[in-house]
């Protein structure tokens, strides 16, 4: 198991000859994917150009917002998440960058994967090497026994999840197919629950529901205890119906999980048949560090300091 580069110098994690993990790719040209994009997210060549032009005009109304207006890839990522609804996309972009000001503590000390390298080393987050049958990218987050709260704070964990999702969105196919996340809560304790205060929970929900340009196709909670179920019940009123509709609880019922995720892309411990070897968290840390420069660039985008305060007066 190691990190290699293809002929285009794009890095990937090699898990033996059969399994590779990429997060970066060129725009898709497969006719089936183009047809899916048109059917599911209203993406056609004509609509892309119209929406980009409309979105740029709206964003010019935000002179204090520094983002790459002429970068089609950057804007299309948000448009795809909103199915080319320009007004909705405009609101998402504004909300995302207001979060950086209103929730400064979640961003100011975590500009890139290197800044939280220790979180990945703990092995709490990993990508699956196979997509689900519907094309969705798969990510596993282990927030139970692997989460040592004396080493990893909730803010650092949130940043690690954010980097993992945003890195995956470098692949246009993932922007189209979306992502499915497995939350493994085995061994969840009161020490970990105490970290997840209402403030932190609301931040995570706001980011997932209103700020992150990804199509969340499913959140699958496994090994969930009564303790976790009680915690979820407390925060359920703050979760949008759209998000509630894609959250599923399976505990240890792997047949239930298999109704939503093809077992061929799941490891045996989740009732699957994936033969890819498991890899250490430090390998994912090494991999994501290769994208530090990309995240440093993203970190530089946002509203000018104080601009939102002036607007709120």
From TrEMBL:
One protein family per Pfam: CRAL_TRIO_N
CRAL-TRIO domain sequence ranges: 112-278
GO MF assignments: phosphatidylinositol bisphosphate binding
Highest taxon listed in the record's lineage: Eukaryota
Species of the source: Culex pipiens
Classification via CDD domains: SEC14
PROSITE patterns: CRAL_TRIO
Protein name: Clavesin-1
Record-linked Gene3D superfamilies: CRAL-TRIO lipid binding domain, N-terminal domain of phosphatidylinositol transfer protein sec14p
GO cellular component: membrane
Lineage, broadest ranks: Eukaryota, Metazoa, Ecdysozoa, Arthropoda, Hexapoda
